[in-house]
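Design request, tokens follow.
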């Protein structure tokens, strides 16, 4: 699949995750823009060329969900995504140390 024929979509949850990362970085006195830009550039570049090249997320497989793949960035973040023909949908973006179950629970209880 050529990258030029691929469309990337970011869900509300993925955007929420980015806002959370930005807030965390600002609280640590780190400029978030270059980190987020590098993360998204790496993700779109690598996954755009090889959409099925990342492993299926092992944490989600344990709870019976094998639909989502996990891209790991050089900067210590991971993007959970799915592939549907020419559309790649980013569902969540987390620190590699962050617990997926905790994120899912937070998203369920927030208004």
């Amino acid at each position: 699949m050529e990258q030029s024929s691929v469309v990337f979509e970011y869900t509300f949850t993925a955007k929420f995750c980015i806002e959370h990362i930005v807030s965390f970085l600002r609280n640590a006195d780190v400029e978030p823009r270059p980190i987020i830009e590098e993360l998204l550039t790496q993700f779109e570049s690598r996954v755009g060329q090889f959409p099925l090249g990342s492993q299926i997320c092992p944490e989600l497989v344990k709870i019976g969900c094998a639909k989502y793949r996990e891209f790991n960035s050089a900067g210590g973040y991971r993007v959970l995504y799915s592939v549907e023909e020419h559309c790649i949908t980013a569902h969540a973006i987390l620190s590699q140390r962050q617990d997926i179950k905790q994120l899912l629970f937070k998203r369920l209880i927030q208004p």
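Comment from the thread starter after seeing the answer: thanks! Residues 32-49 form the longest helix (18 residues).
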